[in-house]
């Protein structure tokens, strides 16, 4: 009897992401009729240590943003290398793709080509098994629904306003179920729309790349204060139920040749930036700060963590780029308490899971994350449940590419029924 999990075919095409940029989709089919389909996301603010996203560079087509080279690499190089292999052998298949690429940062085939294939393989194996992806990856232990971190005010590279900080998020921790937490977040999002419209006018409710509003603001405190007002107006407590998280993406407002950070209309030296974060934490109920300093400053992260103690989760994204070697460096000097997990930063599912395992073994909170350029692909919702949270970061509860992830989590919650547990009920944070 033939092995139903054998990869029968691999195909690829150029599709479009949420910013209207081309991206790559890969479809993998097995002998047993299983089909896996995955689309690579793309970031606007990318760490310089990320695996390389291959673009065509042909300015006469899509202004150079095409991915036909990556599509061709899947069809001409990846497909012949993995057809005939057992789709359940994820690690072996990922290793083969890395070897075929042959570069340190996946620049030959493109991390976008490799991650789309890697995820499609896992989905094909799950489909052949006739079980959801989260269950295929996580087994019987996979039952924790993650706490959503919803970016509902956009700044930085995600918006056209003067806010230096890239993301202002609400985090509904104090609820019994994922669906209740999401309901609260949606109510706050709707209230925020009303607050912004009343305060700044109708132009303030345009949305950024991740579905959050992009009001004409300049000061970080101004954004936090309207979030707190919206939380309070909805009858929720921001000490115990809904907290605030920030993605500073500080590399985006770091002026390297001057060694300063430009924020709130001011130029701050490193020590001044450190004091800025300490003052903000003492004034507001902030759960976490992501990338508070530029991406190479491991010592700066560690110093901030030491000075504010365990009051706030210091999170690495550009600092650690879903790379185990970078995480080991951060762990060595106690730089972070949490990490962002973006599969396309490293390029394969198995490397992503290795990164998550290393983080969890060292007590580091994992935040499975989307990118600003997204699609209807819902892989990260399944990964977040497969590894039992505690967090997922996938934008505002608006725009189809964002709600695709939330809707999938609602489906998973229903599928698990009484077995499901909301991460806010079992994880203890700062």
CATH architecture of the largest domain: Alpha-Beta Barrel
CATH topology of the largest domain: TIM Barrel
Just give the CATH class of the largest domain.
Alpha Beta
What does the largest sheet look like? 8 strands, mixed, barrel
- Number of extended strands: 16
Estimated structural class: alpha/beta
CATH superfamily of the largest domain: Enolase-like C-terminal domain
Helix content: 25-40%
Count the domains: 2
Distance between the termini: 54 Å
What is the alpha-carbon Rg in Å? 21 Å
Q: What form results from the Cα inertia axes?
A: globular
Spatial sequence of strands, sheet with the most strands: 5-6-7-11-12-13-14-15
The share of residues in extended strands comes to 15-25%
- Could you spell the SSE succession in H and E letters? EEEHHHHEEEHHEEEEHEHEHEHHEHEHEH
Oligomer: single chain
* Low-pLDDT residue spans: none
Mean pLDDT: 95
Helix count, per DSSP? 14
Brief synopsis:
The chain is built from 14 helices and 16 strands. By secondary structure, it is of the alpha/beta class. The chain folds into two domains: about 5-130, Enolase-like, N-terminal domain (Enolase-like, domain 1), CATH 3.30.390.10; about 140-425, Enolase-like C-terminal domain (TIM Barrel).
């Amino acid at each position: 009897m033939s092995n139903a999990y054998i990869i029968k075919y691999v195909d690829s095409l150029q599709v479009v992401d949420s910013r209207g940029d081309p991206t790559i989709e890969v479809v993998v089919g097995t002998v047993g009729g299983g089909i896996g389909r995955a689309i690579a996301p793309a970031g606007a603010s990318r760490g310089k240590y990320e695996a390389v996203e291959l673009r065509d560079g042909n300015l006469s087509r899509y202004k150079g943003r095409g991915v036909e080279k990556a599509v061709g690499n899947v069809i001409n190089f990846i497909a012949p290398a993995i057809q005939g292999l057992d789709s359940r052998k994820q690690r072996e298949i990922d290793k083969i793709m890395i070897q075929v690429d042959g570069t340190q940062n996946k620049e030959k085939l493109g991390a976008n080509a490799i991650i789309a294939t890697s995820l499609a393989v896992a989905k094909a194996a799950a489909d052949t098994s006739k079980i959801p992806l989260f269950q295929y990856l996580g087994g019987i232990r996979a039952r924790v629904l993650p706490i959503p971190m919803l970016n509902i005010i956009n700044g930085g590279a995600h918006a056209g306003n003067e806010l230096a900080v890239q993301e202002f998020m609400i985090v509904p921790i104090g609820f019994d179920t994922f669906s209740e937490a999401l309901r609260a977040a949606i109510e706050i999002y709707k209230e925020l729309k009303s607050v912004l419209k009343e305060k700044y006018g109708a132009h303030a409710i345009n949305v950024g790349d991740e579905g959050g509003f992009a009001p004409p603001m300049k000061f970080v405190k101004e954004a936090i204060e309207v979030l707190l007002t919206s939380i309070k107006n909805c009858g929720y407590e921001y000490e115990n139920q809904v907290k605030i998280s920030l993605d500073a993406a500080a590399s985006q407002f770091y002026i390297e040749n001057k060694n300063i950070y430009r924020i709130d209309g001011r130029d701050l030296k490193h020590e001044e930036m450190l004091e800025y974060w300490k003052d903000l934490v003492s004034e507001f109920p902030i759960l976490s700060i992501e990338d508070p300093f530029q991406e190479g400053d491991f010592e700066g992260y560690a110093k901030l963590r030491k000075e504010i103690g365990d009051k706030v989760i210091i999170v690495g994204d550009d600092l650690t780029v879903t790379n185990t070697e970078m995480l080991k460096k951060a762990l060595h000097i106690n730089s972070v308490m949490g990490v962002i997990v973006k599969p396309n930063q490293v390029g394969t599912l198995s490397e992503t899971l290795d990164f998550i395992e290393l983080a969890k073994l060292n007590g580091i909170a994992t935040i499975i994350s989307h990118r600003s350029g997204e699609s209807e692909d819902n892989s990260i919702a399944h990964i977040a449940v497969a590894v039992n949270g505690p967090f997922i970061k996938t934008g505002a509860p608006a725009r189809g590419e964002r709600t695709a992830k939330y809707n999938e989590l609602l489906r998973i919650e229903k599928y698990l029924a009484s077995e499901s547990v909301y991460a806010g009920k079992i994880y203890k944070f700062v």
